[in-house]
């Protein structure tokens, strides 16, 4: 693909590589914004015990510090993506950065639970605007296949490995400074990312005739709130709880109603053409299913290392670094080189299978298993697998969409990640708790037995995660039908002489 626009592309506002010579510098600032969003999913987890003690938060309410962020983030993403399309992605990026920084500062200065909760919800709301704006800016910055592959390799590495970095950073800040710095740290990151305003690509907002699909926004937001909140409550109340069942049922009904409404809307919030393309739909599905294994590993290995092995918060964060290294090597090195040459499923399917091998490695884990033989190999294998999944999935989640749909297509990728993480965490946690409870039945609750029960629960959950990842690989192998990029390029060149 050459740097000059072809006749078929001349009508779109999408810049070509030659239009933005500072696109690689722009990638640094976009990557910083994405890192800030991903960090906040896990960095506060480590700080939560200290914040709970400092602010007098009850055990029943502490989960809301996490849930307030994920609930607002996951449920508002589609709306945020469409707002970015209508107002301009560059403008939405800056507004999202400023809002996220202010909400983080408010949370760090919180003197009580209510203010902290409000700040976390605000963080999630601004993240829902910032995340799709960042991904769509990346998509329009890099249009040449090889450069696009490298850029999305970096972005995929951040998306998959940033959570592990958050665990380490949270441990360091909490142990050596204060839990409040787990929120304050976002302010300098946001300021640095905002300095990239001048090097980000110019884009056009929608015309003045464009109107926001308010009924669609209401249906989508309420449906996603019900679904994400239902999954969060399932962790504590169980899947058979009347409240959980009511939330999930209403969420499904609202989202089905949303799809039916969008099919008839003249200006839909989510044009169905975005999700009916097989390759894009497969990319969204791959992201959602892959993070089930990823977040399951974060959740259970954090407890395994801190409760069973008695690691400190900092040591736990350090112990997760090999996973991040695996992601960086895979997404930034292997996937970025192969992505311009092979079909996306040639990377995504092996990546899911590798991740399944990694979670399967943890099934025989015991309380006295050494880190070097049990956890370390699994982290490296899962990291390598996730890098192969996330780089091409994020690339093809926005590949080939109309310019006016890039924001909402990016939002769908982030929504898939949030929904997958919410469902996966709740599902695997419930399975682990049930298995631990069954193990304890009829046994004396000594400290050793309690640790063994925890590990038994983790092992059962990893078995389920492994099955999900293998099944995901089979489904993606069938659904994802995009050819290798060279073939796509040839197909685009053929009709060009007849247009204009």
Give a topology summary.
Layout: H1 23-55, H2 63-87, H3 89-108, H4 113-141, H5 145-176, H6 181-184, H7 186-194, H8 214-237, H9 242-264, H10 272-276, H11 278-308, H12 313-319, H13 321-338, H14 345-361, H15 371-397, H16 406-440, H17 447-479, H18 485-493
Helix pairs in contact: 1-2, 1-4, 1-5, 1-7, 2-3, 2-4, 2-8, 2-16, 3-4, 3-7, 4-16, 5-12, 5-13, 5-15, 8-9, 8-16, 11-14, 11-15, 11-16, 11-17, 13-15, 14-15, 14-17, 16-17
Computed Rg = 22 Å
What's the CATH architecture name of the largest domain?
Up-down Bundle
Number of domains: 2
Quick check: average pLDDT?
81
Largest sheet: none
Pfam families: MFS_1 (PF07690)
InterPro entries: EmrB-like, MFS, MFS_dom, MFS_trans_sf
Organism: Streptomyces siamensis
Membrane topology: Multi-pass membrane protein
Describe the protein's architecture and organization.
With 500 residues, the protein is mainly α. The protein has two domains: 22-201 and 269-481, MFS general substrate transporter like domains (Growth Hormone, Chain: A, Up-down Bundle), CATH 1.20.1250.20; 213-268. Helices cover 76% and strands 0% of the residues. The protein has helices at 23-55, 63-87, 89-108, 113-141, 145-176, 181-184, 186-194, 214-237, 242-264, 272-276, 278-308, 313-319, 321-338, 345-361, 371-397, 406-440, 447-479, 485-493. Helix 2 packs antiparallel against helix 16. The longest helix has 35 residues, at 406-440. The radius of gyration is 22 Å and the shape is globular. It starts with 22 loop residues before the first helix and ends in a 7-residue tail after the last helix. Mean pLDDT is 81; it is low at 1-18 and 487-500.
């Amino acid at each position: 693909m050459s740097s000059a626009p072809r006749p078929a592309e001349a009508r779109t506002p999408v810049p070509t590589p030659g239009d933005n010579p500072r696109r690689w510098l722009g990638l640094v600032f976009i990557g910083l914004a994405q890192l800030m969003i991903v960090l906040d999913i896990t960095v506060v987890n480590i700080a939560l015990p200290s914040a709970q003690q400092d602010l007098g938060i009850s055990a029943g309410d502490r989960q809301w510090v996490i849930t307030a962020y994920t609930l607002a983030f996951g449920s508002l993403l589609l709306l945020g993506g469409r707002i970015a399309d209508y107002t301009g992605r560059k403008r939405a990026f800056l507004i999202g950065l400023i809002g996220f920084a202010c909400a983080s500062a408010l949370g760090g200065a919180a003197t009580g639970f209510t203010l902290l909760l409000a700040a976390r919800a605000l963080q999630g709301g601004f993240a829902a605007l910032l995340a799709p704006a960042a991904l769509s800016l990346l998509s329009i910055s890099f249009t040449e296949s090889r450069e696009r592959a490298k850029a999305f390799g970096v972005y995929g590495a951040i998306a998959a490995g940033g959570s592990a970095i958050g665990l380490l950073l949270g441990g360091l800040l909490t142990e050596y400074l204060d839990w409040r710095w787990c929120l304050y740290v976002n302010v300098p990151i946001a300021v640095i990312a905002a300095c990239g305003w001048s090097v980000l690509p110019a884009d056009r907002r929608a015309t003045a005739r464009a109107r926001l699909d308010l009924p669609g926004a209401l249906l989508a937001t309420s449906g996603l709130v019900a679904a994400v909140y239902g999954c969060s409550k399932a962790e504590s109340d169980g899947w058979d709880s009347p409240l959980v069942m009511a939330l999930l049922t209403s969420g499904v009904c609202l989202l089905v109603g949303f799809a039916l409404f969008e099919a008839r809307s003249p200006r839909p919030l989510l044009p169905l053409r975005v999700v009916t393309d097989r390759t894009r739909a497969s990319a969204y599905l791959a992201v959602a299913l892959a993070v089930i294994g990823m977040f399951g590993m974060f959740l259970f290995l954090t407890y395994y290392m801190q409760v069973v092995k008695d690691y400190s918060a900092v040591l736990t964060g350090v112990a997760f670094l090999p996973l991040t290294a695996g992601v960086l090597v895979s997404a930034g090195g292997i996937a970025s080189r192969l992505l311009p040459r092979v079909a996306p499923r040639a990377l995504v399917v092996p990546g899911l299978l590798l991740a399944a091998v990694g979670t399967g490695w943890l099934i025989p884990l015991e309380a006295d298993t050494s880190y070097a033989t049990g956890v370390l190999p699994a982290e490296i294998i899962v990291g390598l697998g996730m890098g192969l999944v996330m780089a091409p999935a994020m690339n093809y989640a926005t590949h080939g969409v109309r310019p006016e749909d890039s924001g909402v297509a990016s939002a769908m990728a982030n929504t898939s990640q949030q929904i997958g993480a919410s469902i996966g965490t709740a599902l695997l946690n419930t399975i682990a708790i049930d298995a631990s409870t069954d193990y304890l039945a009829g046994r004396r609750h000594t400290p050793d037995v309690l640790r063994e029960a925890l590990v038994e629960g983790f092992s059962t959950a990893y078995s389920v995660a492994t099955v999900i990842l293998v099944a995901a690989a089979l489904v993606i192998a069938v659904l994802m039908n995009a050819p290798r990029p060279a073939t796509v390029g040839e197909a685009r060149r053929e009709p060009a002489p007849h247009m204009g």
